Amino acid sequence: MTANEDVLKMQHSYRCTPEKLFDAWLDPALVGQFMCPGAMHVSRLEWPAKVGAEFRVDMTERDKTMPHRGRFLEIDRPKRLVFTWSSPVAGEDTRVTLDFKAQQDRTLLTLTHERLPSKEAIAMHREGWSGILDKLTPISS
Questions:
Q1: The whole model's pTM is what?
Q2: What are the tens digits of pLDDT across the range 48-57?
Q3: Interatomic CA distance for residues 95 and 20, integer angstroms
Q4: How many other CB atoms are found less than 10 A from the CB of residue 92?
């Protein structure tokens, strides 16, 4: 966690180019494979990756579904992707920024999730985003 109490910051390194990793975040078929942590699966996905477009991701495990929605704010391929993120845990209009940086034969992804409402929400999102970033590893290879 950074010094700000409402900010979650995480980094993960992938063995691929920034372009390949960035494009995985734009492709609904791929997003549907990794945009859910742990044993959850994406049960509904609307992912029109265009600035200003709204998206929806429903993550389901057994009989419990957690809806997520947001709007794409910035798409700067292959450097940065920014979107709002709203859910029952996150609250309304939190902000997620993904920064992609080439490092030799790898790409460092920095995820920053701002405006989270509580330490509990930060902890839950740390776990959730960790699971999502882990699921992205085989897709990016």
A1: 0.94
A2: 999 999 999 9
A3: 23
A4: 11
